[in-house]
């Protein structure tokens, strides 16, 4: 504190302390400074220095690779206007995986006193800001944050609830439930029950209460036949009985639904995902499709995000961000089968500018292709 306390800066003392502290020692020094003086060390150094000297000290004080990337973002977002290209480079070129990006976000909060997503959203806008802020979270943390946003205020964003509660696998959903309780102090089940009702609400409640975990016992032929008949009757004639469809699709695991799907195709010549798309609508359609086949659901949501006039940027980002390479390749294969075009090719023809660059780099990283 003595080197930057009072009028003027003791440059020699400051440089000596910075030179001595490296890695874990610098991290410990930053934490101790924050505890003692209730403000980040880097903020005080920035307040007492300027120009290239400030930039050099900011980078010299990096305690790990994440802190170095954070220092680049800090420089890009200070002053009049934000250098968006530098922020894009930082989160797609310098930090190239979930661990490195989350490390960058943690370092930014420690060094500069503000959450990196809030800085991005205040300095940038649109799909680019949404995408880059999403990259600052872990997959579990992002899903919990999206659920929180979807359940706040009047009404709920039901598509987000489907994306996480229905389309994610059971083990991941259990981690999200724990993260939601830890971060927001409320059980996810209670939050959903207080905000969503009807058949859709019942489906979400069931999925949160009783995990659908594979491998599950194989269904007897008689049980498969009963469900095929139930679904057929529910979707024939005037009006579709959503309750019957929702009950079947929320009760069984993906593998069990796969067996019902095979039998339904054999009996009626229609795949369950196509039956749902034709006979249901809105949240019930999305939830049932995600329950049957999350990969097909993601592919069709990606198509929906880029069809027609204008791009549904938030939906596009939600369907792409925090995918594992294996998961994305499966989605891309279905997308290619249905559209005769890859996800990357469609994205590149539908969005532009820095948003296009960021998404291209991200998709290439998932495909194991060079990032330029």
Q: Helical proportion?
A: over 70%
Which spans have pLDDT < 50 for at least 5 consecutive residues? none
Judged by helices, strands and strand pairing, the structural class is: mainly alpha
Computed over alpha carbons, the radius of gyration is 25 Å
User: How widely separated are the two ends?
Assistant: 42 Å
Q: What can be said about the biggest beta sheet?
A: none
- Broad shape: elongated
Residues in β-strands, percent: under 5%
- Written as H for each helix and E for each strand, in order along the chain, the element string is HHHHHHHHHHHHHHHHHHHHHHHH
**How many alpha or pi helices?**
24
- What is the average of the pLDDT values? 90
- According to DSSP, the number of beta strands is 0
Set down the secondary structure blueprint.
Blueprint: H1 11-20, H2 24-37, H3 41-48, H4 51-60, H5 65-77, H6 84-94, H7 98-112, H8 116-123, H9 126-134, H10 139-151, H11 158-166, H12 170-184, H13 188-193, H14 198-209, H15 221-234, H16 242-251, H17 254-268, H18 272-279, H19 282-292, H20 294-306, H21 313-320, H22 325-339, H23 343-350, H24 353-367
Helix pairs in contact: 4-5, 5-6, 5-7, 6-24, 8-9, 9-21, 9-24, 10-11, 10-12, 11-19, 14-16, 15-16, 15-17, 16-19, 18-19, 19-20, 20-21, 20-22, 23-24
Features:
372 residues, mainly alpha, 24 helices, elongated
What do these coordinates show?
The chain has 372 residues and is mostly helical. Helix content is 73%, strand content 0%. The protein has 24 helices and no strands. The two termini are 42 Å apart.
């Amino acid at each position: 504190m003595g080197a930057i306390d009072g009028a003027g800066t003791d440059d020699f003392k400051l440089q000596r302390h910075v030179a001595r502290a490296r890695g874990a020692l610098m991290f410990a020094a930053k934490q101790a400074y924050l505890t003692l003086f209730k403000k980040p060390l880097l903020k005080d150094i920035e307040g007492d220095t300027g120009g290239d000297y400030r930039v050099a000290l900011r980078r010299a004080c990096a305690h790990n690779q994440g802190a170095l990337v954070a220092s680049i973002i800090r420089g890009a977002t200070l002053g009049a206007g934000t250098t968006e290209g530098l922020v894009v480079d930082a989160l797609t070129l310098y930090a190239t995986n979930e661990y490195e990006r989350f490390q960058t976000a943690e370092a930014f909060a420690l060094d500069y006193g503000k959450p990196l997503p809030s800085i991005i959203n205040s300095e940038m806008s649109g799909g680019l800001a949404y995408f880059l802020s999403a990259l600052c979270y872990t997959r579990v943390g992002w899903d919990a944050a999206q659920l929180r946003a979807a359940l706040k205020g009047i009404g709920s964003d039901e598509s987000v609830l489907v994306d996480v509660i229905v389309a994610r696998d059971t083990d991941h959903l259990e981690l999200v439930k724990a993260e939601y309780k830890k971060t927001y102090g409320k059980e996810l089940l209670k939050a959903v029950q207080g905000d969503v009702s009807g058949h859709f609400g019942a489906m979400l409640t069931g999925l949160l209460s009783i995990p659908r975990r594979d491998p599950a016992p194989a269904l007897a032929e008689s049980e498969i036949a009963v469900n095929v008949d139930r679904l057929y009757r529910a979707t024939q004639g005037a009006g579709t009985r959503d309750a019957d469809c929702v009950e079947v699709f929320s009760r069984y695991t993906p593998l069990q639904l796969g067996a019902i799907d095979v039998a339904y195709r054999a009996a009626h010549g229609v795949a369950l995902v196509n039956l749902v798309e034709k006979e249901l609508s809105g949240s019930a359609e999305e939830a049932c499709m995600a329950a049957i086949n999350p990969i097909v659901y993601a592919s069709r949501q990606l198509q929906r995000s880029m069809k027609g006039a204008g791009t549904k940027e938030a939906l596009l980002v939600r369907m792409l961000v925090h995918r594992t390479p294996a998961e994305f390749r499966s989605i891309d294969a279905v997308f290619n089968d249905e559209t005769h075009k890859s996800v990357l090719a469609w994205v590149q023809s539908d969005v532009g500018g820095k948003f296009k660059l960021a998404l291209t780099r991200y998709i290439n990283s998932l495909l194991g292709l060079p990032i330029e």
